[in-house]
Amino acid sequence: MDVKIFDKLTGKWLIPTVLGTKPTPSNGYSAVPVNGDRILILKEDCSAVDSFWFLEVDSPYVKEQKKLLGAEVVAWSKGVVGEGPKPVVISGPSGVGKGTLISKLMKEFPTTFGFSVSHTTRAPREKEIDGVHYHFTERSIMEEEIRDGEFLESALVHGNLYGTSVDAVEAVTDAGKRCILDIDVQGARLVRSSSLEALFIFICAPSFEELEKRLRSRGTETEEQVQKRLRNATAELDEGKSPGLFDHILVNDDLETCYENLKKLLMLDDTAANYQPTVRSFQIPMSHSVSIKDQKILIRCGTSELGKVITSLFLLDVSSLKGGSPGRTRGLRIYAIDSYEES
């Protein structure tokens, strides 16, 4: 689907830089302006999971990319019915036990939680599988994707780039699982500043002395490495308490108590009720019309059955949209209103 922008000042058509995952071709489509900063594209003869796409023309992400690139920019974002489970960002210094807490969650709730697969520019090690352990990629490609805002967070480690892409997190959410991001405080700050809505939890030890004790008891690092981790921990503890960064701070004094508190924060008793898939069977036929009022889009569909024309009415609610490019736009609601036979 080609995109052009009409410049009213010059009276000419411009070809913008197009970011995001583009929709696959379809037999036709309808376009509806939404919220003044994006256009909803309704694809014809497609399944429910591929019917709704947003072309962002003046969203915060597009504005940011225009400044960075110094050019006209538009961005695609796939529309999703329902919201999906909110990702969880878990951070904390080395030695606080966050890895153990996450392992316990994954073991007790294997169908509820999932990990995103990170990207890296380093070479695969023996027995590492692309797409399973990491997404292995070229440095030039990853640098370009980082510039385009396709990564939630990234860092240079020992000469190689590592990062979490928006698509990697969205893939876990699309599978109906709640994505866990085990990242450092710097990465958490980058995710917080992105369009991704997540729950941010900081894990800390009851005291700095206890943290040092735990690090030394592991017996896996040299004294130099221990001192480096302690210096990093001091900075992370200070930054972790910054207002507005983390939603909750858990003190891991006793592992089982901390784990129970973590489960309460994640409202795991309500998991089944909160995370059921909301996508219903829906397909926009070639013969249809759309109209919009107060963030409600009326879709009138006409289909032929046994020589008769059946008209169906659907209401698409776009009042609770969340997210956006370079990820998904979630929060669409669709309701069947009526169906009747044309005389």
UniProtKB/TrEMBL annotation:
Database matches in Pfam families: Guanylate_kin (PF00625)
InterPro entries referenced in this protein's UniProt entry, alphabetically: GK/Ca_channel_bsu, Guanylate_kin-like_dom, Guanylate_kinase, Guanylate_kinase_CS, P-loop_NTPase
Catalytic activity reported: GMP + ATP = GDP + ADP
One GO location term (cellular component): cytosol
Guanylate kinase-like domain location: 85-267
UniProt-listed SMART domains: GuKc
Origin superkingdom: Eukaryota
EC number: 2.7.4.8
Enzyme class per UniProt: transferase
Gene Ontology MF: a single term: ATP binding
Keyword annotations from UniProtKB, A to Z: ATP-binding, Kinase, Nucleotide-binding, Transferase
Family listed: Belongs to the guanylate kinase family.
PANTHER family: GUANYLATE KINASE, GUANYLATE KINASE-RELATED
Protein name: guanylate kinase
Organism: Elaeis guineensis var. tenera (Oil palm)
